Structure formats: structure tokens, C-alpha cells
């Protein structure tokens, strides 16, 4: 198996976890299967860099001297954004990025890739707080704000911070297989692995909290009773509003329709049961409000691109079902 060089780009204002998270994954893979990865860090002029949290990182070499890597990883952080951004970074990426066999960004590292023209015509994601900016500043990039990471050909972009670990685990699994990636995930005490199209936010985080108390109580009721009667008429009655008034007010105050909110809460409830319990698929479908296994399967495939049984296998391969 050929050794793959992984080059991590460092710069002032980088987010330290965007660097160390993926680095620990690839380093773990090298320990597990020696000779598979050669990990290097580089900065402009080989200068030490100060991360956004104040940690100083000393690179291995100058970017100017770095050979073309197999995997070029660009982290995010304050240093990717104006006025802190060094314009030479985009220039270097524009010249050297196309030489990498695999181009990867974590968090707002996607902004640097876009500045270098490396995301033109591609689908990409970044930290939720900067998706609108990325789309506005680079209209040639198809920005998807929902997934934790996106693959478009040989280009991989991921969302905020810890999603870089998810993406690195996915890359190791692609390179070496499932077992080494699972061993690394267990060592790091993280899941193997959140699917790339899993949403960046839970329903409770994605939706705004309603201003009015009756609507907030309905939100809480939905979360606590995913298997309940959650049609608009029943929820409206709980809020003491007409169905039409309730639907308008709920969307205005939370940013999503009642139906969409219910769908997300039920999916998250089912996911947690698949991850944390040994309950059977049929039992979970009832407890999550789907009623039937087929209804839950359709919801999983539509939203996560995988069936419940496969989702459980990815997250908890050793959990017996009953």
C-alpha cells in the first residue's frame, strides 16, 4: 500500500481543533497501520503561527518547499477571513491546490479554497455561520448549509470544528477500511461515524425558540412526546389557537413549519435510540412516532441517505438487536 502524504496548512488565526482533530485521526491511522500516512504541517515562510485560542504551533516546513501531497488539508479559523487573512495563502492554494490528489477543508477553510477558485462549480459546505457569506461572495460555488461534510469529486469540505474529525475518519475508512477507522474512533472516544449528510443542527438548535409561551410549550411537548398526536390541529389546540393561526405563528417565530419541526424531532429521537439502545427497529419506529418500520426507513433514506439498520451498524456495530 503506498504511503499517502497529508499536508496541513497553518496560518495565524487558525482554529487549533481544525488542525489537531484531523491530525490525530491520521496519526492514529499511521500508528495502527505503519507506513500508510506521512503527516506534515507547513506555513508561509515556515513561521510559527498563533491559533485563534492563543496556542502557538511550529510547522515542519515552509509551504514554498512542500512537495505535492496526496491529501492537502486546509483548516479554518479567524485567519481565513478578512482583514486577518493573508492574501498569499489563496495565491499558494491557487497554484498548488490542483496538484493534490485529495483537497480537504475544515470549517471556514472552504473560504480559502473558494478564494483560490478551487470550489468553482462545486458543491461545498462550511461552518453554518458562514454559509451565507460563502454563497454571497462566491456565487459560482453551490453552498449546502446542512451537511456536516460534502464530497464533490476529489474535493471534500466540512462544517464547523469537530466535523473535521468525522471527515478525517471517513477518509481513513476510504483508504484503509472500516476496522482501522473504527479502532481510531474508539481510541478518540468518538462515533464512527456521523454520515456526511447529517444536519449540522438538531431541530431544537436549528429552530428559533418561540417568543410566546404557548408556542414554546408546544415545542417542548413535541420534543418530549415524539410518538404523540402531532398534527397541526392537535398542536394548535394545545396552544389554544386556530390551526391556521397556529401554523403561521409557529413558522414566523421558529423559522420552520410545524410539520418540518416534528419531522426533525422524530428523526433525532429515532437516531438516539438506534445509537444508545438495543431496542428493535419496530419498537423504535413506534416510540419515535413513525408507526411502521417502513415509514421510518423512508424518513431515514430521504434525510440521511441510509436505512435505520445501516445507520445503527455505522454507529454501534456491536449492539445486538432484539
UniProtKB/TrEMBL annotation:
Pfam families: DJ-1_PfpI, HTH_18. Gene3D superfamilies: 3.40.50.880, Homeodomain-like (1.10.10.60). Keywords: Transcription, Transcription regulation. CDD domains: GATase1_AraC_1. InterPro entries: Class_I_gatase-like (IPR029062), DJ-1/PfpI (IPR002818), Homeodomain-like_sf (IPR009057), HTH_AraC (IPR018060), INH-QAR (IPR052158). GO terms for molecular function: DNA-binding transcription factor activity; sequence-specific DNA binding. The keyword Transport does not apply. Residues 216-314 form the HTH araC/xylS-type domain. PANTHER family: ARAC-FAMILY TRANSCRIPTIONAL REGULATOR, HTH-TYPE TRANSCRIPTIONAL REGULATOR RV1931C. This is GlxA family transcriptional regulator. It comes from Streptomyces guryensis.
